Amino acid sequence: MVDIIDILMVSILLFNLYKLIRGSVALKIFLGILSLYLVYQVVKATEMELLSALLGQFMEVGVMAAIILFQPEIRKFLMLVGNSTDFKNFPLLRLFRSRKDKDTELDISPIVEAMKEMGASATGALMVISKDDALSYYADTGDHLDAKISKRILLSIFFKNSPLHDGAVLIYKNRITAARCILPVTENQNIPATMGLRHRAGIGMTEVTNTAVLVVSEETGQMSYIRGGRIFHNLSTLEIRQKLKEYFADSTDRSNKISLK
Ligand SMILES: Nc1ncnc2c1ncn2[C@@H]1O[C@H](COP(=O)(O)OP(=O)(O)OP(=O)(O)O)[C@@H](O)[C@H]1O
After folding, report:
1. pLDDT band at residue 243, thresholds of 50, 70 and 90?
2. CB-based contacts of 195: which residues, under 8 Å, 6+ apart?
């Protein structure tokens, strides 16, 4: 029984690891190391001493080398684990949470209306919506704000000459918590070359956090929705609205405390 659980857990771990490095340079490095390891095993079995000793030296420092080579992926993986271990939602701690906390609402309309207007004027925008984490690590990379969401505030932030227009806005519990934030850029190589840094940063953010990202393209005015590393391109306001509702209704929702207006 324990063996079955063991095998199951290793399979889940390997699958998640594959999902994390799929499409990135890390996969190629991993395949390279795997090939070397297979060659080493063959060389050892056929008792080719010189080559075996040479590859053996390499294998000995393998773990250290892997940690250095996969540093970004290991960091991503640990962040993913950290994000899914949400201590705030432990049953005992929930008792101490204030009522106000539970009644938070996300007002979608001003966000969608602002996107529509920015799309029409080809104003670039990048917004991260979080339902269960304040994302303070990312908020610290920009300027902290604490403003109730409004269409005018969003338009002012992303207005081309605004000092806050660069980077991403973070939205949590119906508040714009920060602007000008720097997001992690995806390393997925399968993303079309037409998508620049704004879209890549949005994709990267949803790979490592349980967030939904909205993008308005400065070039085309098109609106996109990103979730779990997948981008849904050129959506209508209705579709964006629907996607946001799905995000909050997601069964993996660990908070279930945010309702929609
Ligand atoms: N790591 C990052 N985190 C947050 N924002 C970023 C990051 N990198 C770039 N940006 C934002 O993206 C802008 C550059 O967008 P770029 O033109 O490269 O992207 P794009 O995906 O082609 O979008 P667009 O269609 O709007 O041109 C920057 O001015 C900055 O505001």
Report:
1. very high
2. 231
